[in-house]
Amino acid sequence: MRNTARQTRENRTITVDFQHEATYFQLLGDGKAFVECVIAFILSLGFQLKHKAMCTGGGCMTRHSHYLRVRLGGVTIWRIQCTTCKAVFTVLPHFVLRYRSMRPEAARDALLATHGGLSLELCAVICHLSPMALYRLVCAFGQHSLVTVLTRCGLPLPTYFLADEKHSRCLTEKVYLPTIVCGRVLWHLGYVEEASAVAFTQSYGEFQRVASQQEPSYRVKGVLTDGFDSTTKSMRTLFPGVRLGYCLRHAINKLPGKLAAITSAVRKALRSQFHTLLYRARQRRGLRVFALGQRLRHFVDHVTATAGAANGARVRRWFQDKKAGWYAVLADPQMPVTSTLLDQAHNAIERKLFMMKGFHHPHGSQQAFLTGLAHLYNLVPYQRRAQHAGHCGVEVEGGKVPTRDWFLNLQILTSGGFR
Ligand SMILES: [Zn+2]
Fold first, then answer.
1. What tens digit of pLDDT does each residue of 342-380 get?
2. How remote is the CA of residue 56 from the centroid of ligand 1, in Å?
3. How many angstroms separate the alpha carbon of residue 150 from the centre of ligand 1?
4. 16 CA to centre of ligand 1 in angstroms
5. In angstroms, what is the span from residue 9 Cα to ligand 1's centroid?
């Protein structure tokens, strides 16, 4: 497996929901009805076919040629062609996976188990397929970009988002997963081997590139980070003029570490006072930024009085360093305030990566695998006791999925033939 996509010609496969297998086999005998059914399905999604450049797509579609899927017991697969630009689309019925002999039901169960945190090896045991087949299945879906799939669901490109890197390991080497989250949806999950601004810029730049292709006027207004230097640098490089905020909850959790040689009761009290300070600063509209500056100065005086001059000086330096990022959060009501949703996404991905240690080898297709996992994160509905039971992240964020079946959605949304 390679890290890069290896498409030699354009993938114009489309997955079409024929509802029942019997319907599909009936339509095979009637070319006109077959094409009409395919077109009706595409219209119902509100999608368009990816014709060749310069073709308006106004021409007719005809059945072009067919072949047999021998490993699927000889299912006939038809291709349809645009009479104007001659682009050829392979029509996969909903019960057939691209390039795979695996039945969608088996793939659905195995992916759901993987998403739930079961190891690839054990998923393979309960689903009767090899761990490698499952790994490749995730990678295959991961060849399609998150941005493409999410915008197909009608989600607008995020103008405000959270960005942070998950630390992980590939065997003994440290690796980092640059991540972009907006609400319940992952927009980017990258893979780099060093924590430098250059490496992060390259990874986040992949998101920026695809997003700008989708929408040339795309501008990011605000990004919340934990304040790590390489992250903020890469954001400034990729999104000039962006408002860069630092997570407030992260700040509250960091404060105790700045306070040395005091009792834990004093440390706890100061943490809780700092929490109240940031909370109140958020409550005040209008003068929020001014109010915060004044309150931070008072707080440093208070630390000096209760915990000594050394602690006071350390907290002052830390405030100097970070306050611009906190101001940025308070100055724009649309800015996200804490990175909790990003941490949740990271924890969910972490469980799966931990479970697939055996596949974490240096020459694996990490990027494709991670993107595949991210698709599952966005499209698998929450379990029935969850807050958003039955809905997937995309729907919670206001997006629209093609059908009620998440796996069919994954097949349709990652079809290369749609535009
Ligand atoms: Zn055409």
1. 988 988 888 777 666 655 666 778 899 999 999 999 999
2. 6
3. 25
4. 19
5. 16
Q: How many angstroms is it from 60 CA to the middle of ligand 1?
A: 8
Cα(49) to ligand 1 centroid in Å equals: 8
CA of 61 relative to ligand 1 center, distance in Å: 8
CA-closest candidate to residue 180, choices 133, 124, 139, 220: 220
Four-point Cα dihedral 205, 207, 213, 216, nearest 10: -80
pLDDT by residue (tens digit) across 371-408? 999 999 999 999 888 888 899 999 999 999 999 999 99
Query: Quick check: pTM over 0.85?
Result: yes
Q: Tell me, in angstroms, the distance from the centre of ligand 1 to residue 14's CA.
A: 15
- Ion ligand 1, residue ranges at CB < 5 A: 51, 55, 82, 84-85
